[in-house]
C-alpha cells in the first residue's frame, strides 16, 4: 500500500511511503522551510514525490492536522482533501504532535512532550507515551501555553521534548532532553495504519482531516 503523506503545520513535509506486510519503506520525500508559501509550493512538491516514487497515484493520503499556522495548515488540508476526492482514495488525518511523539518514541523515549512553535511567545504542546510499536497514547491533550509554564511542568514531570527544530525558546534551555524529529512518511504511514486497524477493531478513533487550531488565527502573522 502506497501512502502520500502531507504535513504543513509549520513548513511543508511531503513524501510517499510503501507498506508491505508490516514493513515500511520511504520511496520519496521533499520539504520546504517556507512558512508563507504553502499554497504555491505544495502541489509542485507533491507532484515531485509522486513522480519520484514511480506511482500513478497513492492508495491513501495521510495528512497532519496540526496544530500550526492557520494559513499553512489550511492549505495542506485543502490540498489533501482535493487529491483524495480526485484520486478516490481514503484520507486519514493525524495530529502532528502525535506524529512527532511517535518519532521520538522510536528513539527510546518513554515520556514525550511533543512541541510546535505557536508564535506570539507560545508553544503548542502534548504529552504522550508509546503504545506498542506504531502508536502513542495521549497523556495530556494538546494545549497552547507559555514556554515558562511548559518548563515548570517539565521540571516536575520530566519528559523528552520532541520538536522539529533545535531553536527553542530560552525558557526551555536545560530543562529536558531534546529529540529533533520530523513528520516523516514512514512515521505518518505507521501511525495511520495503527489507527485504522484500531478503528476497524471497534475503537472510537478520529481519523478526520479537520484542523486543530487551538486558538484564533493571527491574520497579520499567519
Explain what you see.
GO terms for molecular function: transferase activity. This protein is an alpha/beta fold and 222 residues long. It folds into 2 domains: 2-95 and 183-201, 2-Layer Sandwich (Nucleotidyltransferase, domain 5), CATH 3.30.420; 97-180, Nucleotidyltransferase, domain 5. It contains 5 helices and 10 strands. The chain has helices at 38-53, 70-87, 96-105, 147-156, 185-200, and strands at residues 2-7, 12-20, 23-32, 60-64, 91-94, 112-119, 122-130, 136-145, 160-163, 178-180. Strand 6 and strand 7 (122-130) form a beta hairpin. Helix 1 (38-53) packs across helix 2 (70-87).
Helical percentage: 25-40%
Gross CATH architecture of the largest domain: 2-Layer Sandwich
> Which sheet architecture does the biggest sheet show?
5 strands, mixed
Computed structural class = alpha/beta
- Give the tally of structural domains: 2
What's the N-to-C terminus distance? 35 Å
Rg (CA only): 17 Å
- Separate helix tally: 5
Strand order of the largest sheet: 3-2-1-4-5
Amino acid at each position: 500500500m502506497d501512502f502520500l503523506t502531507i504535513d504543513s503545520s509549520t513548513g511543508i513535509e511531503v513524501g510517499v511511503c510503501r507498506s508491505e506486510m508490516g514493513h515500511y519503506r520511504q520511496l520519496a520525500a521533499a520539504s520546504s522551510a517556507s512558512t508563507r508559501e504553502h499554497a504555491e509550493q505544495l502541489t509542485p512538491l507533491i507532484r515531485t514525490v509522486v513522480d519520484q516514487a514511480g506511482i500513478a497515484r497513492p492508495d491513501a493520503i495521510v495528512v497532519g492536522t496540526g496544530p500550526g499556522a492557520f494559513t499553512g495548515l489550511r492549505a495542506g488540508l485543502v490540498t489533501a482533501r482535493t487529491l483524495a476526492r480526485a484520486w478516490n482514495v481514503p484520507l486519514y488525518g493525524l495530529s502532528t504532535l502525535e506524529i512527532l511523539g511517535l518519532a521520538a518514541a522510536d528513539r527510546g523515549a518513554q515520556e514525550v512532550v511533543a512541541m510546535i512553535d505557536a508564535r506570539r511567545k507560545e508553544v503548542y504542546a502534548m504529552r504522550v507515551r508509546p503504545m506498542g510499536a506504531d502508536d502513542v497514547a495521549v497523556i495530556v491533550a494538546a494545549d497552547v501555553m507559555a514556554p515558562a509554564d511548559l518548563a515548570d511542568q517539565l521540571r516536575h514531570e520530566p519528559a523528552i521534548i520532541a520538536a522539529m527544530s533545535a531553536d527553542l525558546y530560552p525558557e526551555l534551555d536545560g530543562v529536558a532532553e531534546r529529540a529533533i524529529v520530523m513528520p516523516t512518511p514512514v512515521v505518518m504511514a505507521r501511525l495511520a495504519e495503527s489507527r485504522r486497524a484500531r478503528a476497524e477493531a471497534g475503537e472510537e478513533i478520529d481519523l478526520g482531516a479537520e484542523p486543530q487550531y487551538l486558538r484564533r488565527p493571527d491574520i497579520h502573522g499567519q
